[in-house]
Amino acid sequence: MILEFDGVEVTDGVRIVDQRKRLLLRHDPYYGHSGRARQRLAYNAEGDEDHLVHDRPAILRAILNGYALPFRGEHGVVHWARVLENGMRLAEATGADAKVVALFALFHDSRRVNEGHDPGHGLRGARFAQTLRGSLVHLDDAQFELLFEACRLHTNGLIEGDVTLQACWDADRLDLGRVGITPRPHRLCSDAAQDLLPWAHGRAVTEFEPAEHFTARGVGDGGTGAA
Q: Most buried of 11, 13, 212, 218, CB within 10 angstroms?
């Protein structure tokens, strides 16, 4: 059985495996184009750089190509998917910038080198996102500063800050149950996060894999199904 995260195969212990072209095309309307060509095509399609579509499968491939840990480890793709869903609910409730929150979910642990105490991994993830600006990451300067700071500071236990920073940090903290930690309501940044805690914690402790982002298919059968 092959597990896919947003159309990208994730198999522990090996480098990323390229998807079949038909799956890439399903998720990636600019498949086969260079980074700058992708940007031009997306710009022309949307008419405004602020509305460039983030190519999440391509971002995932870029991250996983250099990811040092098991893809499905404690800080890997299943965690990122739950943080993404937590973050989208928080953004809707608080008015946080959903584009920034979504990218935080992918980058905040993207350059960890171990599953335990790993000083500076948030900064490394932020700097990696910076290398993809203009090719895969399409944020204006103010948005990118929020993404950079959210990644850099996400393990510092802060609760005060811009609403988008708060949504990023809470989205991550709400998934602490996967490592045996119950988030404390007073250490969450917003009332919205406290309201979301029972739902998110229940998913974390059961290692829930969001069906919207994960599918499994039998090798060679070409089929798909909910994981």
A: 11
* Neighbour order of strands in the sheet with 2-5: 8-9, 2-5, 214-217, 225-226
Q: What domains sit in the chain, N to C, each tagged with a CATH number?
A: 2-226 (1.10.3210.10)
Query: What pLDDT does 215 receive?
Result: 56
